[in-house]
Amino acid sequence: MTVVTLGETMALLSTPAWGRVTGGSALPVGIGGAESNVAIGLARLGVPATWISRVGDDAFGALVTREIRGEGVRVLAAADPAAPTGLMVKEMRGGKPWRVRYYRRGSAASRLSPSDIEASVVEQADVVHLTGITAALGPGPRKTLDHVIGLARAAGTLVSFDVNHRATLWPPAEAGPVLARLAAAADVVFAGPAEAALLLGRDLPGEPSFELGEDLARELAKTGPRTVVVKLGALGSVALHGGEVHRAEAVPVTVVDPVGAGDAFVAGYLCGLVSGEPVPGCLRLGNAAGAAVCRVPGDWEGLPARDELGATEPVEVVR
Description:
Blueprint: E1 3-6, E2 10-14, E3 29-32, H1 34-44, E4 49-56, H2 59-70, E5 74-80, E6 87-93, E7 96-103, H3 119-123, E8 127-131, H4 132-136, H5 139-155, E9 158-162, H6 172-184, E10 188-191, H7 193-199, H8 210-221, E11 227-231, E12 236-241, E13 244-249, H9 261-274, H10 279-294, E14 316-318
């Protein structure tokens, strides 16, 4: 049971807890990227994971590959001598994350192309996990996603797709049609309510609820994916599979830093999927992993090991 991910991971700088950067300020350096977050989450849960990307031939690129490899993930990332590693800056206010800024235009990962993909890696995987963030990086990464989906389809590898729309990278009018096309080609789709509405070309009809999540999942399933999972944040999650809707309430938690919780949810869900868990079990694992990440600062540092996932609430099945 192996999962392959593909996408950009950046160096991450965090401003001081009080937010203001002054001369001599120390900015802690870490890493962050949705796809590597998922890969690390899977590795910690005992699922072999591979991360494919490009990084700059620079100190940040070395940091990114070293940290991800150190978490037990197989890293296939070329060092690009002509483009830098992407950068993200997490601005703090009152000791808590307030805003994230990206510096990724012209980054090494924006130069991803089909030639970066070793076909056998995708063909031998049980699941290949992709996100809409990669599609936002430019035409080369979009072609790479199409190439990977084609390889997976031919080999019978399941395709997982997290919409992960980032309005700071591309506006909804541009992103919507591309993300909808990619979602339609996937087997499993993960989306928040606003992202699901974006794929369907409509405005979000109301506040997040289990009923709204179910309605959106049913509409999205008509476009192609076999399973649609709607992440409802503090409420929990909804999955539609085989005509049945499954609801799972969130694990109660005191939120310290919510960044990365969605990626942790995906890692937990995919862990259950490749382990043969039914959909309710996948949702429970996803909710528990997402809650664990919210408890501590950082995008991925709080990703749990399997034995750290506590008991969770039962899943309700709605026929």
